[in-house]
Amino acid sequence: MLDTKLKPAYVLSIFIAVLTLVASAGGLFIGNLYRDNSTFILIGWYGNDLVTLFVAFPLLIITLIMSIRGSQRAQLVWLGMLDYTLYNYAFYLFGAALNLFFLIYVALFTLSIFALIFGLANIDVNSISQKFQARTPVKWVSSYMMLWAILLGIAWIGQWLNFVVTGQLPQSGLDMDGFKLVATLDLSLVVSGLVLGAIWLWKRRPWGYVLAVMFNVKGFIYTLVLTAGSLLQANAGIEGTAALVPLWIFLSIACLISFMILLRHMKNQAT
């Protein structure tokens, strides 16, 4: 049954899904769409588009349909997918060299912001939190989220401190602007949310369950993106990328297990 309060977020999500399909398929099949000078970056876009088209887009569509039909489990995953499109297309909008799809990236970034606002403002958080069983292993998931936040924060802040002291950026394939963009988005949109979600989940607060599923869904999809990108970069002979694949796979599996554990401990709602 359609929740009318969520209708604006659902409508925006339809536009987001269509534009996601166009952006990812176009990135894969339109020759010379990307105009970045770095091979590392170019291959990264292709890996991203591959996962977005064949994993993220179908998952967004499926969870959107299930959410409209009243599934609260699907609502949490759907919100996580909106968080993914916001985070993901921030990179395209602010990081990719100007190309044919500039306005599509603007639209995806903007629509994702408003869809998330309307979605989070209108879901029944208390009803959702009451569906989680008392034996839900919140401390295990919360601990993983906090560990992930700490390690990610240390990684970026440590590299920045190294730059301050030595004046040299890490050999990551990113130039100064690229490093700043990735670090900014991770520290602001990922680390902060993980910390808040982990604390609230540990205390079993209603919003903790919502944020925990959201961030682990986004983490699962985006580490798949990083896995695909690293494999393609390694195949192209870019040094150091293959060594990161086990880390991305571990994080992807850990995120998948985390949000699946939470959803598994949600009671079936009456319909």
From TrEMBL:
<feature type="transmembrane region" description="Helical">
    <location>
        <begin position="181"/>
        <end position="202"/>
    </location>
</feature>
<keyword id="KW-0812">Transmembrane</keyword>
<feature type="transmembrane region" description="Helical">
    <location>
        <begin position="100"/>
        <end position="123"/>
    </location>
</feature>
<feature type="transmembrane region" description="Helical">
    <location>
        <begin position="50"/>
        <end position="69"/>
    </location>
</feature>
<keyword id="KW-1133">Transmembrane helix</keyword>
<protein>
    <submittedName>
        <fullName>Uncharacterized protein</fullName>
    </submittedName>
</protein>
<feature type="transmembrane region" description="Helical">
    <location>
        <begin position="9"/>
        <end position="30"/>
    </location>
</feature>
<feature type="transmembrane region" description="Helical">
    <location>
        <begin position="144"/>
        <end position="161"/>
    </location>
</feature>
<feature type="transmembrane region" description="Helical">
    <location>
        <begin position="76"/>
        <end position="94"/>
    </location>
</feature>
<feature type="transmembrane region" description="Helical">
    <location>
        <begin position="209"/>
        <end position="231"/>
    </location>
</feature>
<keyword id="KW-0472">Membrane</keyword>
<feature type="transmembrane region" description="Helical">
    <location>
        <begin position="243"/>
        <end position="263"/>
    </location>
</feature>
